[in-house]
Task: inverse folding
């Protein structure tokens, strides 16, 4: 069984955080919740780099906005993918520190899940293909057929001359 991907969700709205947590946990993710940026930073300090798979933060948080939280998170966990969500679409230009932005309420749960899937996959990297130990037989036959045809042409030229 694959280990569950761990997502840190930060939102000062408890209802939004609860719904997002439920959505993610029912899709097989393990969710850590924080209501403030300070609480999120404490979680980030306690975790080893590489153990978190994604940070989802609201842009407008009390004390420290989502952008600053993302900047500090990236200092502690440089490879951590980040997603900022916001209820005001006009603040997209302020969410430049994150890897992705999603407008809260304007994006469907399916869009949120797809964006999360892509960001988590990007962190993991491309699928690794096993090297083929035995080369396929078909190209070898094609090469040997071509070689035998070349030899037959050479023999015909030798006989003709």
Result:
């Amino acid at each position: 069984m694959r280990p569950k991907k761990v997502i840190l969700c930060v939102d000062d709205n408890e209802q939004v955080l609860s719904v997002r947590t439920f959505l993610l946990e029912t899709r097989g993710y393990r969710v850590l919740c924080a209501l403030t940026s300070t609480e999120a930073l404490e979680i980030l300090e306690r975790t080893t780099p590489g153990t978190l798979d994604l940070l989802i933060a609201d842009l407008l948080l009390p004390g420290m906005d989502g952008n600053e939280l993302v900047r500090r998170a990236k200092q502690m966990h440089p490879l951590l993918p980040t997603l900022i969500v916001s209820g005001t679409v006009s603040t997209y230009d302020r969410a430049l520190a994150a890897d992705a932005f999603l407008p809260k309420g304007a994006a469907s749960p399916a869009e949120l899940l797809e964006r999360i899937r892509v960001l988590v996959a990007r962190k993991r990297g491309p699928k690794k293909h096993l090297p083929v130990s035995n080369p396929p037989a078909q190209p070898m036959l094609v090469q040997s057929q071509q070689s035998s045809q070349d030899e037959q042409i050479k023999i015909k030229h030798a006989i003709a001359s």
Observations:
- The beta strands are 6-10, 30-34, 54-58, 82-86, 100-103.
- The chain has one domain: 6-124.
- The first helix runs from residue 14 to 25.
- The longest strand covers residues 6-10.
